[in-house]
Amino acid sequence: MSTRREAVIVDVVRTPVGRGKPGGALSGVHPVDLAAGALASILERNGLDSALVDDVLIGCVSQVGEQAMNIGRQAALAAGFDERVPATTIDRQCGSSQQAVHFAAQAIAAGDASIIVVGGVESMSRVPLGSSLGGVSPMSPRLRARYPEGLVNQGVSAELIAQRWGFDRAVLDAFSARSHQRAAQAWADGRFADTVIAVEEAPDATSDETIRATTTADGLAGLPVSFRTDALAERFPELEWRVTPGNSSPLTDGASAALIMSAERAAELGLRPRARIHAMSVVGDDPLMMLTGPIPATRAVLERAGLSIDDLDAYEVNEAFASVPLAWAAELGADEAKLNPWGGAIALGHALGSSGTRLLGTLLAYLEHTGGRYGLQTMCEGGGMANALIIERL
């Protein structure tokens, strides 16, 4: 009978993020090369021979065009990895690279691997959101039979959440302004210095282009709503329509990577683990509300870990829209001082496939800076799903 092995996190890196539109700081970089830079940095920073890596797992949502044909494999080859190292690409929507971390930890715990490099990439400037649909609907006849009124886009789901939990426009905008202020302060204090790497093809990209340090709730109040149409207003007459570009995450370019190993292998190679994977969960949830999954995912992972929300020192809850972490905090009774303390995706961007390992790097750096022990990250995902992960700083 095999013994379950401990999976540890040795390192996490990410690129700065760029605006995900033409002219953004990273829009001139091919997404394969963007991901390759993060993968190569993991090897270089840790003096690791790529031939020792058992697998490379990369998250990417829009797997079409320049992000097609298994971008994980293309990026590993572009990063100079030994040709014998396999790689694959994962799509669990916004949680794709967080799912890569989960798969890596599971393979290591099972004894099927001892070193896995994970990460994610999304170039939303070069492969626009929705490109993978190719102009057709994913609603098949059987799916329409189950949901005859149809499902909705994530912005409408964010509106439904704001309505159900009673978050008015002022609350959403105040949360969003705080995200920018926290992120700007974290950059000013050098909190990301050990995580953010240079991009060889874009040397002028030295910080997160999506942060607006002067953002205020009053300034956001003047922005128009993003998702209201006459047809949707007729379908959802209760909605007040309060989700805007200012209280949503922006289109973003970026890549990230992490080195996950067995504790034994790390010791053999003389590498210092920074944290251990303590517990994981993944859940499905209502695909109409869609973005509420982090609530049951967090409850599941806390139960699995034998912890309460008060035992956690920080939580990174992806800010796809302001209503998502606000609803999560309300349901879990979470301390908002611990919620995305260095800002979230509203300020730091949401390069879809990259966001899971980006959150991991921020969470780990925060625990190390503050001396905290346990941290949680959770991510709402298209189709009504969520991953949750608890790490323990070592």
Give the low-confidence spans: none
Q: Structural class, please?
A: alpha/beta
Tally of DSSP helical segments: 13
List the secondary-structure elements in sequence, H or E.
EEHEHEHEHHHHHEHEHEHHHEE
Structural commentary:
The protein is α/β, with parallel strands linked by helices. Helices cover 34% and strands 18% of the residues. It is built from 13 helices and ten strands. Helix 2 links the parallel strand 3 and strand 4 (87-90). The longest helix is centred in the middle third of the chain and has 20 residues, at 169-188. Residues 8-263 form the Thiolase N-terminal domain.
Summarize this entry quickly.
The chain has 394 residues and is of the alpha/beta class.
List the helices and strands and how they pair.
Blueprint: E1 7-14, E2 18-19, H1 31-46, E3 55-59, H2 71-78, E4 87-90, H3 96-110, E5 115-123, H4 141-146, H5 154-165, H6 169-188, H7 217-220, H8 230-235, E6 252-262, H9 263-268, E7 275-284, H10 294-305, E8 314-317, H11 323-332, H12 345-348, H13 355-370, E9 374-381, E10 385-393
Parallel strand pairs: 3-4, 3-5, 8-9
Antiparallel strand pairs: 1-6, 1-7, 2-6, 5-6, 7-10, 9-10
Active site: 94 (acyl-thioester intermediate), 350 (proton acceptor), 380 (proton acceptor)
Organism: Microbacterium keratanolyticum
Family: Belongs to the thiolase-like superfamily. Thiolase family.
Can you give keywords for this protein?
394 residues, alpha/beta, ten-stranded mixed sheet, 13 helices, transferase, Acetyl-CoA acyltransferase
